[in-house]
Every structure is written in structure tokens, then in C-alpha cells.
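Worked example 3 (structure in, sequence out).
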């Protein structure tokens, strides 16, 4: 939106601001706007969502509410100006949404909640400016952000994980006790709507096809990710072609690559099975050299495997850039435990292992679990969000014992399997995958059937793997709901 820079956050006192969406980011945006003296108006198609938002606000903080059908009227120009001076949008709203197009046409700036928080913090409206550490990438964001928070806490920093993990960034600015360091997991949507955000240190873990239906192209998706590399220090996955290219082009003064191999000067990597940093320098007799600093054995990293090690390297690179020491990294990562639904073992029944990787919401994420070793009965499907599943299916076909497909885009995965794995048994399960269950608990019933079918295909030593390669919102509330549904279904296979 070209109008994004046309309003000063310090001039919002008395301004009417339209907040689009009463979901996760809505309450924090209303609190910040109220603290700035603005008059927030929340628009949502669900009256009950607006009431829940109001109930979540602290005493004394209020907001008006309006149905989405009426919100467009607030953007209409009158007496030379719009009744609304700013729109703060939920990050999931696409730029081509009619209301946002109308806002642009009326000359009304559009910010996301991250942009609002960034501008308020940069203006020091809530005390001295914080240190912003931003984590993005197609996969691994949540684990890396949690690791980063753990390292910074070990180093004695007043840090809080926020963004897509923990609190919304707007809430962190008002948190008590004060938070000095934001470890912010930021999605491509949030970054699109935060064009002036310049994190002190930012990391792009990897970039693979995802959310192309939202961004319109791979180039636009990658450009949104690159937003975090515009501050003082830029970190990126050196083994990922697109992330490495974004790092090379980044305007940051310091570039740090992270890789699974031995690190070059200015990088973190793995040397003889040990996570190693090559960041510090000393001057020898003839020239300046880099002293490799061991951090901890790769075998001590959880989650185990290449993806977990890369996440740990990225978190370490960011933390070391803001004053953490190697001993802080080692202590924090040694004690770190991965969150739920990330390749989490559930149970072993009759020699068959059941693994919940519901967090694998795109093909790139599912690949790691599918290729972790052994034969797989794969439970997949959901919303592919414009991603191409063919390369994944072609690569993992040799490890597949069978496949059970659920969700709205199951047919596209079935077509890819027919092309690249025609001998692999495939079961497709119809369901209320339009988001409206035909019968009570239909998503759970579908998952029960999926796990039961997978159990029949599996033999001793196999793994029944939920790694959907797709988003969950066609059937489930979120990936956590989908993962919990899988765990329940495994329990029923076990006879509970």
C-alpha cells in the first residue's frame, strides 16, 4: 500500500482507526491504539468475535464494533477526508481484499499490528526502544524462536517470544515487567503489512513454495521474507538457495550464514559433529584469522536431525549477535525441548511407530519427517495454498508403504501420487473439508478413519506419519487441533 508512510504514529491521538479482524492480533492492536489516544473501531463478520475481543480488554479500554458490511462506509470520503485515518489489518487479510483496496483508493494508510508496534516503539512512546530479533522462513520459525528466547533468557536478557508464538508484538510493548528484547516469529503476511520494520537482527531460515495463493508469486513471497534482513545483522540458511541469495543481497552491515557443513569465516556450522561458530576474530602474526568456537554437540540438539540443528544454529547466530556467549548457547540448547506436533513420537503399537508432525503445513516441512528413515504410511492433505506437491511426492515415493489422504486438496496429492508413485496404495477419505462439518465431530471421525486405514497398511517397523504438507483450516481449527485429533485416533487404535 503506497499510503503506508503518510501518517505519524504520534499523531493518532483522537484519530478514528479501523481494526480489521477481532482475532488474535485484534485485542493487542486495540490496546496500543487506546494507549495512543486513538478511537479504535473493530470490524468483523462475527458479532460474537467482537464481544470476545471486548471481554479480553483490560478494564477501562473500550472500542466500537461494526459489521464488515458497514465497515466500507467508514472509508468513504466526506468533507475532504475519510472518517477513518488508519486501517490496522489482521495479517491474514490479502492485499486484494475489497476493504483494503477501498482503503487504498481513499488514501487511507494500511498497517499490520507489527507495523503499528514497530512505529510506536521506534517513536519511544512506551519507553526506550526495544531490541527486535526477527525470525522468518517457510519452516522452522517456531522452534528457532523458542530456542532464541531460551538462549537470551540464559544470558540474562529481559526477552519475550512473540508474534506468531507467545504474545502478539503489540502486547509485548505494554507488558509488565518491561520486555527489552523481542524474539519475534514473523510470517510473510505480517512482514508484508510491516514495510517500515527494520529488526536489529533478522534471520531467514529457508524459502520454499508456500502461501503463493496469498502473495501471488514466489518472488513476492521471498521479498516479504527478506524484510527481516534490513537491519544491523542479517542471518540466513546458507544451504538454502533462495535464503542464501536473499542474504547476499541484504543491506545489513553484517551477514552471517548458517550451514550443516563446516563453517566458513563469518558463519556457524557443524564441525566433527559439534555446532561451531566462526564469528570472532584475532590478529595473528601475518593476518586476521577466525577462531572456531565450539558450542555443543549436534547430538544434544532437540529436535534431532538436520532441521533441528539448522534451527539451533540460526538461533545461536542471532543470540550471539546481541551479546549472548557460547556457554549461554550450550546451556540453553542442551535443556531445550521441542514443542508439540513437531515430529513428536506418539506411541508404538504392535511394532508400528506413530508420529505427529501436524506442524508440517507445507511440502517443504513434510519432507524432513518423510525422509527421516524407514518405511512410512503417510497421512496427508488439507489446504496446499498454491504449493506444488509433485517434487515432494517424487522424492519420497521410495519410502512410502501407503498413503491416506484427507482434506480439501487431497485430490491434487492423489494425482501426484498417481504420476510418481503408481504402485503405492492410496486411500482417499471424504469429509466436511469445506470447514462445515456435516455431522458433529466429523473432523475427529475422519481422523479416526485415517489412522485406522494407515494402521491396516503398516507392518512392524513402519511409521504411521501425520505430516499433512498442507494447512489445517479446511477441517480443523489449527495444526494443534489436527495433531491432538491424531493423538486421540492413535489411542483408539490402541484400544483406549
Amino acid at each position: 500500500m503506497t499510503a503506508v508512510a503518510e501518517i505519524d504514529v504520534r499523531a493518532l491521538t483522537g484519530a478514528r482507526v479501523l481494526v480489521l479482524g477481532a482475532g488474535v492480533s485484534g485485542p493487542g492492536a486495540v490496546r496500543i491504539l487506546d494507549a495512543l489516544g486513538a478511537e479504535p473501531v473493530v470490524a468483523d463478520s462475527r458479532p460474537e468475535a467482537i464481544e470476545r475481543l471486548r471481554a479480553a480488554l483490560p478494564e477501562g479500554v473500550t472500542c466500537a464494533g461494526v459489521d464488515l458490511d458497514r465497515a466500507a462506509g467508514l472509508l468513504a470520503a466526506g468533507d475532504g477526508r475519510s472518517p477513518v485515518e488508519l486501517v490496522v489489518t489482521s495479517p491474514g487479510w490479502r492485499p486484494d481484499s475489497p476493504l483494503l483496496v477501498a482503503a487504498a483508493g481513499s488514501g487511507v494508510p494500511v498497517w499490520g499490528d507489527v507495523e503499528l508496534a514497530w512505529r510506536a516503539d521506534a517513536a519511544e512512546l512506551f519507553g526506550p526502544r526495544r531490541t527486535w530479533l526477527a525470525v522468518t522462513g517457510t519452516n522452522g520459525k517456531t522452534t528457532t524462536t523458542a530456542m532464541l528466547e531460551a538462549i537470551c533468557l540464559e544470558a540474562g536478557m529481559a526477552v519475550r517470544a512473540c508474534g506468531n508464538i507467545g504474545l502478539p508484538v503489540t502486547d509485548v510493548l505494554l507488558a509488565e515487567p518491561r520486555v527489552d528484547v523481542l524474539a519475534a516469529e514473523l510470517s510473510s503476511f505480517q512482514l508484508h503489512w510491516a514495510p517500515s520494520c527494520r529488526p536489529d537482527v533478522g534471520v531467514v531460515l529457508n524459502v520454499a513454495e508456500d502461501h503463493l495463493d496469498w502473495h501471488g508469486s514466489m518472488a513476492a513471497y521471498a521479498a516479504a521474507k527478506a524484510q527481516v534482513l534490513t537491519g544491523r545483522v542479517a542471518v540466513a540458511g546458507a544451504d538454502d538457495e533462495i535464503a542464501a541469495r536473499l542474504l547476499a543481497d541484504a543491506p545489513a552491515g553484517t551477514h552471517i550464514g548458517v550451514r550443516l557443513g563446516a563453517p566458513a569465516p563469518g558463519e556457524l556450522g557443524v564441525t566433527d559433529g559439534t555446532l561451531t561458530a566462526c564469528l570472532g576474530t584475532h590478529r595473528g602474526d601475518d593476518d586476521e584469522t577466525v577462531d572456531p568456537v565450539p558450542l555443543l554437540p549436534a547430538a544434544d540438539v532437540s529436535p534431532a536431525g538436520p532441521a533441528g540443528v539448522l534451527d539451533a544454529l540460526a538461533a545461536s547466530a542471532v543470540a550471539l549477535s546481541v551479546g549472548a556467549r557460547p556457554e549461554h548457547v550450550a546451556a540453553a540448547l542442551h535443556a531445550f525441548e521441542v514443542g508439540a506436533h513437531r515430529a513428536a513420537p506418539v506411541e508404538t503399537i504392535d511394532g508400528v511407530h506413530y508420529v505427529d508432525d501436524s506442524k508440517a503445513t507445507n511440502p517443504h516441512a513434510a519432507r524432513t519427517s518423510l525422509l527421516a528413515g524407514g518405511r512410512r504410511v503417510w497421512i496427508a492433505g488439507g489446504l496446499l495454498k498454491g504449493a506444488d506437491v509433485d517434487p515432494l511426492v517424487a522424492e519420497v515415493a521410495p519410502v512410502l508403504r501407503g498413503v491416506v489422504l484427507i482434506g480439501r486438496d487431497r485430490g491434487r496429492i492423489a494425482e501426484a501420487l498417481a504420476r510418481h508413485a503408481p504402485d503405492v496404495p492410496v486411500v482417499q477419505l471424504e469429509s466436511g473439508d469445506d470447514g462445515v462439518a456435516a455431522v458433529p465431530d466429523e473432523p475427529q471421525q475422519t481422523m479416526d478413519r485415517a489412522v485406522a486405514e494407515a494402521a491396516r497398511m503398516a507392518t512392524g517397523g513402519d511409521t504411521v506419519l501425520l505430516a499433512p504438507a498442507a494447512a489445517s483450516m479446511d477441517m480443523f481449527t489449527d495444526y494443534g487441533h489436527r495433531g491432538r485429533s491424531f493423538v486421540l485416533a492413535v489411542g483408539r487404535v490402541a484400544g483406549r
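Notes: Residues 31 and 61 are 7 Å apart (CA to CA). The chain has 18 helices and 22 strands.
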